[in-house]
Specification:
The protein is built from 18 helices and seven strands. Helices cover 76% and strands 8% of the residues. Among the domains are: 136 residues, Tetratricopeptide repeat domain (Serine Threonine Protein Phosphatase 5, Tetratricopeptide repeat, Alpha Horseshoe), CATH 1.25.40.10; 59 residues; 122 residues, Histidine kinase-like ATPase, C-terminal domain (Heat Shock Protein 90, 2-Layer Sandwich). α11 runs antiparallel to α12 and α17 runs antiparallel to α18. The chain has a five-stranded mixed beta sheet. The two termini are 47 Å apart. A hairpin with a 3-residue loop joins β6 and β7. By secondary structure, the protein is of the alpha+beta class. InterPro entries: HATPase_C_sf, HATPase_dom, Sig_transdc_His_kin_sub2_dim/P, TPR-like_helical_dom_sf, TPR_rpt.
Length: 575
């Protein structure tokens, strides 16, 4: 029983653990699906993110919450909602620390630095990037080291730490070329070209910008190309190649105006004005100076709108935090309900185990009882077998005396006694191999009894025809013994008294169910018929006395007819 209980508990714990891991795997698959959608299909990404939120808050596990907050922050980042993104990245980082996963911490810190970089908070961004870089060095993750170093180079470039940025971009260029990542190498070339323009290394700048255009021609975005064209125009203007400079500036301006990038359009206008002034084309220089003034107002308004959006985001963030606090309260309430449910389930399991133990004890008790019953039935079957043997011995002794007796009357009495013993012996013989000692097949017994009587009297089967029409009927032994003795007397009387030697004899035995829950037994012959005054002679006939006595014991209805022979019918109640 202890082994069964242990196996049950082990099965429950194993099933729970397997289910838990399977559910967490499903969460991780949803996380991957989200990052595949967030930049391409916002609608589907929001559906997946909603599922992740509900699941993570329900399970309240640091690992799941860290991944959910990171995904949620990335969603806001994709919408340029950097303040909301930062709030979620910080939550993700705290959960990653609770979880103890340094790789997840490094990824989140890198993402956090990206938000601050977009908000031009370069020093803070650089701080997060450097922490992430050290984590990936500790983890020996080369790919993420390269990604973070790329971001650090961009930060140093924007902070005008040109010497540090140059060394970092040169290192990154070699790494990208080694891995045949020409698009990233193109980015390094563009930034190196920009650094060389700012430090007046014009020839080196032009060379790097040409490499950027060559390597990124198939992969650069329009914004990347606009920036490269702009820097190339700036470098050529410094080289006094004004026509070539204007050519690249026009290409850059076309892209920035098509994409409504007012900030870069303003820089292009400023470069146009400087280049035309350098070329002594005053009208064009004046035209672009006016453009600059107009776009400065536009850029100023955009900045104000950005500040307003930041304040609005902060307000929404506060509301979001309050909502999360409410959700946590709801989760705590749900947890209490779950704990109560778990207690109830455990109680049910204990009651179930108690029931199983009680059931097993009951089955064990029933098994012992059945074994005892089987033993008794075996003993009873053996008793029937021995009774059968004893009756056969007595019958054989009587037969021996029959052969020695010369007086006809005595011989007749002994033969009749032997037949009756044989009829009773046959009952016990049928009971011995029978699986059910309570009932026995009456039809099978009558069939065997009638044929055995024919064998005993050694009748000529060609002259005496035995007909049996026996339906399948089972009776208990209390009914079987009197019925067997009655049939024995009827067949014996028919074979002894009904026929002469010339007659074409026929004896029939019929057994079937009658109406009103009765068994109908009929024994008939086509012999001389029974005397009409048989009841008066009954006192002189032991056989007829037995038939009458046993029919009364069976509470049956006895009828005797003389119709081309003798027809004796018994209606025996089954109840």
């Amino acid at each position: 029983m202890k082994r069964i209980l242990f196996c049950f508990i082990f099965f429950v714990l194993y099933s729970y653990t397997t289910l838990l891991y399977a559910q967490n795997d499903n969460f991780n698959n949803k996380n991957k699906e989200f990052f595949g959608l967030v930049w391409n299909d916002t609608k589907k990404a929001k559906v997946v993110l909603k599922w992740m939120e509900e699941y993570a808050l329900e399970k309240n596990q640091s690992e799941l919450l860290s991944k959910y907050f990171n995904a949620n922050a990335t969603f806001f980042y994709s919408k340029s909602n950097y303040n909301e993104a930062i709030s979620n990245y910080l939550k993700s980082y705290e959960k990653a620390k609770e979880w103890g996963d340094k790789w997840q911490q490094g990824v989140v810190l890198n993402n956090l630095g990206g938000c601050l970089f977009q908000m031009q908070e370069y020093e803070k961004a650089k701080e997060y990037y450097e922490i992430a870089y050290q984590l990936f060095i500790e983890l020996k993750d080369i790919d993420w080291q390269t990604n973070v170093l790329f971001n650090l180079a961009a930060i140093n470039y924007d902070l005008e730490n040109f010497l540090i940025a140059e060394q970092q971009f040169l290192k990154l260029e070699k790494s990208y070329l080694k891995n045949n990542q020409l698009d990233y190498a193109s980015y390094c070339n563009r930034n190196l070209g920009t650094i060389y323009v700012e430090t007046n290394r014009i020839d080196d700048a032009i060379k790097q910008l040409e490499l950027s255009l060559a390597r990124g021609s198939q992969t650069d975005t329009k914004e990347d190309l606009a920036l490269t064209y702009q820097k190339m125009g700036h470098a050529l203007a410094k080289k006094n190649k004004n026509q070539d400079a204007l050519h690249y500036l026009h290409k850059s301006l076309k892209i920035t105006k098509e994409n409504f990038n007012n900030k870069w359009t303003l820089i292009n206008y400023e470069l146009f004005a400087q280049t035309y002034k350098q070329s002594n084309i005053a009208d064009s220089a004046y035209f672009y100076y006016e453009k600059c003034l107009a776009y400065k107002d536009t850029v100023f308004n955009e900045t104000k709108q950005t500040e307003f959006a930041t304040l609005e985001t902060q307000f929404k963030t506060k509301l979001k935090e309050e909502k999360i606090a409410q959700q946590k309260t709801i989760i705590n309430q749900k947890n209490k309900i779950i704990y109560g449910l778990i207690f109830f389930i455990v109680l049910i399991i204990l009651l179930l185990l108690l029931f199983i133990i009680t059931r097993l004890k009951l089955l064990k008790s029933r098994k012992k009882l059945q074994e005892s019953l089987d033993e008794k039935e075996t003993l009873l079957r053996e008793i029937h077998h021995r009774v059968k043997n004893n009756l056969q011995v007595v019958s054989s002794l009587l037969n021996m005396h029959v052969r020695k007796v010369t007086d006809p009357d005595s011989k007749k009495i002994l033969e009749e006694g032997s037949d009756r013993l044989m009829a009773m012996s046959l009952i016990h013989k049928n009971l011995y191999p029978h699986s059910n000692l309570n009932t026995i097949s009456l039809d099978d017994y009558l069939f065997k009894l009638s044929h055995q009587l024919f064998d005993n009297y050694q009748l000529n089967y060609s002259k005496v025809n035995l007909i049996t029409e026996l339906d399948k009927i089972d009776v208990d032994i209390d009914k079987l013994i009197p019925i067997g003795l009655i049939v024995n007397e009827l067949i014996s009387n028919a074979m002894k008294h009904a026929f002469n030697e010339e007659s074409d004899a026929q004896i029939s035995i019929k057994l079937k169910y009658a109406k009103d829950n009765e068994i109908e037994l009929e024994v008939a012959d086509n012999g001389q018929g029974i005397a009409n005054n048989w009841r008066e002679k009954e006192s002189d006939s032991i056989g007829m006395k037995l038939i009458t006595i046993f029919s009364e014991k069976l509470k049956s209805k006895l009828s005797i007819q003389n119709d081309n022979g003798t027809r004796i019918k018994l209606l025996i109640p089954t109840l």
